[in-house]
Amino acid sequence: MPKVLVAFASLTGNTEEMAELIVEGIRAAGGEAVMKSVTDCNAIEIQEYEGVLLGAYTWGDGELPDEFLDFYEEMDELELQGVKAAVFGSGDTGYEIYCGAVDQLEAKLKERGGVIVQDNLKVEYGPNAAEKELCRSFGRQFIEAFAAVS
Ligand SMILES: Cc1cc2nc3c(=O)[nH]c(=O)nc-3n(C[C@H](O)[C@H](O)[C@H](O)COP(=O)(O)O)c2cc1C
Fold it and tell me: Which pLDDT does position 23 carry in this prediction?
């Protein structure tokens, strides 16, 4: 049973709702998930898990939220070769850079050697009924990626 970290930042609850649904999907697929606010964990903790899912809303002009800045910097110390990873988040298409934080986190995970096992998941505001199911599938698929290669 793969053990994965789901670390997220959410100001008004949209990304947190996505994280909760993703965790449901992970557990439904037989995975073990630890869900944490990014302010309650250090990036070094990723190394204790077989996989990591990072979730963030986007702030400013396509920027990472402030709560993610320490964690993002700490990631520069990590060697994530072989660690499975994926990224999700909420944004607003009214902004020029839609869900830019998701793209930044994905690029950082790749830069540190993480293996992005599936396309990122971007949702506008909170997930609607169809997007709730997409979130659950995102969690399920992440766990299925472990079976696919081992
Ligand atoms: C000041 C401000 C700046 C924002 N900038 C962006 C942005 O550049 N791109 C984007 O996609 N969304 C942007 N958003 C929208 C939020 O990411 C969106 O409301 C999201 O659903 C919040 O998620 P949360 O409930 O997890 O905090 C911005 C929102 C605010 C209030």
Answer: 98
